[in-house]
Design brief:
This protein is α/β, with parallel strands linked by helices. The strands form 2 sheets. Strands 4-7-6-5 form a 4-stranded mixed β-sheet, covered by helices on one side. The chain has a 3-stranded mixed β-sheet with strand order 1-3-2, covered by helices on one side. Strand 2 and strand 3 form a beta hairpin.
């Protein structure tokens, strides 16, 4: 394993140019999970790419669903900045498929949304227990 001294100090690293391109999302059934997320967000599932099934988020980033059946899926958190005018439709789609949404990431405020940073947000689980978040305003960071 490399020691921290082998890496440049953070102030020496470039501050622009790196962008997230894709992330692999483990799923017990890649088709089910990709179709679920695409349906809730109002997106389409792309054509398979090797072992991956992509959901294009429209900002140059894809979530590439990868089937993993031989061990449990470790829950991850994925947050999506969504247009305010589409938020209610996403909540309605969650309700239509019987998925509970929550105002908080700990899932204690069922059937409620939050109003963080002047926007609206909600959390819900995908078929493999990933904690998904939709929000209409980005978090304000210090």
């Amino acid at each position: 394993m490399s020691s921290p001294q082998q890496y440049p100090h953070a102030s020496e690293l470039p501050t622009a140019g790196a962008q997230l391109n894709h992330a692999a999302v483990y799923a017990s059934d890649r088709h089910l999970s990709a179709e679920f997320l695409a349906a809730i967000l109002g997106l389409k599932v792309g054509a398979p790419f090797g072992p991956f099934l992509p959901v294009d988020l429209g900002n140059g980033v894809t979530l590439d669903y990868y089937e993993k059946r031989d061990e449990p899926i470790q829950s991850q958190h994925y947050a999506f900045l969504v247009p305010d005018e589409q938020f209610d439709a996403m909540i309605a789609r969650l309700e239509a498929v019987g998925v509970t949404y929550y105002a908080d990431p700990s899932h204690t405020q069922a059937g409620q949304t939050n109003s963080l940073f002047g926007g609206r947000g909600a959390y819900f689980e995908d078929p493999d227990g990933h904690n998904m978040e939709i929000m209409t305003r980005p978090y304000i960071r210090p």
